[in-house]
Every structure is written in C-alpha cells, then in structure tokens.
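Tutorial handout. Part one gives the primary structure; part two gives the three-dimensional structure as tokens.
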Amino acid sequence: MSLKDAPAHIQLAVDLIELLEVNNIPPEQALAALAIVTRDFERKLATQPTYSIKKGHED
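Part two.
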C-alpha cells in the first residue's frame, strides 16, 4: 500500500514524524510535546465526540 492510499491518520503521522526529524527535534523533546498535544486533543474529543478518526473532522 502506498502512503497516498493510507488512512488520513497514517498520512498525518508520517508528516509529523518527517517534520520532527527534518528539524532535528530530540526524541525526548518530541515526546514531551506530543504528550501535550495528545492531552489537548483528548480534551477536545471529550467535549466534541463527533470527531471521526477516519475523516479527521466532524461528520
């Protein structure tokens, strides 16, 4: 399967990894930042449960 055929969340993950690697972000710094991002989006998801992981937006 090519990346262009992958689900949107896989494409986004690959883009984020590339962004972090191209900018030489140390792994511990990236993980700390991603933990903050995760908490933020979990909070958003809890208040707006209509988010779709497949589409990446409200249905």
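Part three, for discussion. The chain has two helices and no strands. Residues 30 and 53 are 22 Å apart (CA to CA).
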